[in-house]
Amino acid sequence: MNPVFAALGMMLLTVVALIASELSKMVDKIVAWMRHSAMPRKSAWQAGRPHHPLRPRRR
After folding, report:
1. Contact present, 13 and 20 (Cβ < 8 Å)
2. Helix (H, G, I), strand (E, B) or coil at 34
3. Whole-number pLDDT of residue 5
């Protein structure tokens, strides 16, 4: 087998494995977040990602 193809195959396998592991973690987070919010998507999205703090910071 061509060593270049072997190296490319190994790289592809490692990349796929990394993506799969990260994807499973992301899916777990998304599922937990969906269960936690349990609301319509738009309001849950806005509640999960506030664009500004609710009160101004004071010292």
Report:
1. no
2. helix
3. 93
Note the pLDDT of residue 35. 82
3-state secondary structure of 58: coil
d(CA 47, CA 37): 9
Please state, in angstroms and as integers, the Cα–Cα distance from residue 37 to each residue in 5, 24, 27, 29, following that order: 47, 20, 15, 12
pTM of the model: 0.40
CA distance 46 to 11: 39
Write the pLDDT tens digit of every residue in 15-38.
999 999 899 899 999 888 888 776
Q: How many residues does the chain have?
A: 59
Contacts of 37 (CB under 8 A, 6+ apart): 44, 47, 48
